[in-house]
Design a protein that fits this description.
- The structure is a single chain.
- The protein is of the alpha+beta class.
- The chain has one domain: Alpha-ketoglutarate-dependent dioxygenase AlkB-like (Jelly Rolls, Sandwich), CATH 2.60.120.
- The protein has 3 helices and 15 strands.
- The strands form 4 sheets. The protein has a 7-stranded antiparallel β-sheet.
- Strand 3 and strand 4 form a beta hairpin.
- The longest helix is centred in the N-terminal third of the chain and has 14 residues.
- The relative contact order is 0.24.
């Protein structure tokens, strides 16, 4: 796959208390289609149970963790061990690292099979991610709404449609002050694969 010379001008999404940049066409259409097809077939997808208010439920999506197998990562009561980087994931990672000016140790992948699959309000603020983590999120597949909500002022919200081949970078104090979610959309039948690159500290 050829390197895509993307438009380096980013859309700024948050008014204050954090930094979020959005690059709508980070990957070419050809590369995006190829990555979507490959990731669907070759990633070791699983559906994990999580605990919500003390009750165990199945996550409404499929997940996988890739990166340094020696460094574990956990969230919401799940302890995950990483699979080694594949050739495709290494290529995506290197291109994202250049744009984000940040090295990443792991990528957490989410496969939203239809609009019924979702992710609730949360912050990526686990201590192993550091004080002000850089989280780089790549989207392949069906366009989905992605929402931000200020953690202390819930009435402050932002929404953006994450399109096929896009890159979203969250950095600075974003995880301190803003939550994000991917809500259900019943009319959407197509799938979306999301890759969230992060650096896990040891």
């Amino acid at each position: 796959m050829q390197q895509n010379l993307f438009d380096s001008s980013a859309e700024k999404l948050l008014p204050f208390d954090g930094e979020v940049e959005y690059y709508p066409s980070f990957f070419s259409m050809e590369d995006s289609n190829n990555f979507l097809s490959t990731l669907k077939e070759k990633i070791n997808w699983v559906q994990e149970p999580i605990k919500i208010f003390g009750k165990e439920v199945m996550q409404p999506r499929l997940t996988a963790l890739y990166g340094d197998p020696k460094i574990p990562y956990g969230y919401s009561g799940i302890e995950m061990r990483a699979y080694p980087w594949s050739i495709d994931l290494k290529e995506i990672k290197e291109r994202v690292e250049d744009a984000a000016d940040q090295e990443f140790t792991h990528v957490l992948l989410n496969y939203y099979r239809t609009g019924e699959d979702s992710m609730g309000w949360h912050r990526d603020n686990e201590p192993v991610l550091g004080l002000n983590p850089v989280i780089a999120s790549v989207s392949f597949g069906e366009e989905r709404a992605f929402q931000f909500r200020h953690y202390h002022k819930k009435e402050l919200k932002r929404e953006i449609k994450l399109q096929h081949g896009s890159l979203l970078i969250m950095k600075g104090e974003t995880q301190h002050h803003w939550e994000h979610q991917l809500p259900k959309r019943k009319r959407i039948s197509g799938g979306r694969i999301n890759l969230t690159f992060r650096k896990i500290l040891t």
